[in-house]
Amino acid sequence: MSWTLSAEGPLGGLTSALASGGVDVVDLTALLSPSTPVLDLPPDMAPIPHFELEELARYDERGRTSYQNGIHTGEHVGTHFDAPCHWITGAGKGDVAHVPVRRLVAPAVVVDKTAECAADPDFLLTPEHLEEWQHHNGPLPKGGWLLYRTGWAARSHDQQLFLNADGSGPHTPGITAECARWLAEESPVVGLGVETVGTDAGQAFTFTPQFPAHHYLLGAGKYGITQLQNLDRLPVTGAVLIVAPLRIAGGSGSPARVLALIENGEVQ
What is the mean pLDDT of each run of 10 residues along the chain (268 residues)? Predict the structure, then answer.
């Protein structure tokens, strides 16, 4: 992304571009409500609580001038951020409160495998797919995000459609163990963003290691963002991602507002 710099400097140039419509802001965040899909965990694990609002006051005797609620939810519900300590391999590598802020504003690129995932809900991204992508689009951005578009956001209004589970477990797209290891250890990106309920495929409990996106990326001190929306509105390259999780002391993650800055005319 680029914009014309003004006499006010780079930030003034950005402000002018936003005001004039030269730069657009795309909201990549799913609506957070009691119907937001939540990952079903195995019976031997504590369940993730759905999002709930507890009304505390609504212009009544509890607070005549105010409307306010209590919030009850899990850290990993809706569009959310995975900190390294979310996984055992990332223990000691940082909670959500201590993510360097420069990592929360970074370039992003989109790898689109919507057609493949429509044909096969268990489709997996491989290093070879990313090599091909780089051949056509250039290298992955240093310190940036890889956003994996699968078309799965269209299912996010319905828990069953979104998780797509049967007797053998969930069937949702993801990445291979080899791809997860490559992203973690060899690629320059800071994290992976997906449209699905988690960064791993639905069948990733059968992989070696289990849940390799979590295992490798968080183990390398990198991050995940899940349940993204509107990736179809982003260009393949050129977007700037703004990720805003809550700064929860000791938190393994947080619901997040995720925004993308794009130049008007770049949308594919």
Answer: 54 83 95 94 88 96 96 96 98 96 97 98 98 98 98 96 96 98 98 98 97 98 98 97 98 98 74
Q: SS3 breakdown of the chain: % helix, strand, coil, rounded to 5? A: 25, 30, 45
Cα 180 from Cα 211, distance rounded (Å): 9
Which residue, chain included where needed, has tokens 């996106």? 213
CB–CB of 89/219 below 8 Å?
yes
107: tokens are 């370039």
Radius of gyration of the chain (CA): 19
Contact criterion met (CB below 8 Å) for 216 and 180: yes
User: CA 67, CA 6: separation in Å to the nearest integer?
Assistant: 42
Q: Residue 118 and residue 36: Cα distance in Å, rounded?
A: 22
Flag whether the pTM goes above 0.85.
yes
Is residue 86 part of the annotated active site? The answer reads yes
> What residues contact 23, with CB distance under 8 A and at least 6 apart?
1, 3, 14, 17, 261, 262, 263, 264
| Residues 87 and 164 sit within 8 Å (Cβ to Cβ) | no
Alpha carbon distance 192, 145 (integer Å): 6
Give the Cβ contact number of residue 53 at 10 Å. Answer: 14
Catalytic residue among 86, 129, 214, 215: 86
How far is residue 36's CA from residue 197's CA, in Å, rounded to a whole number?
10
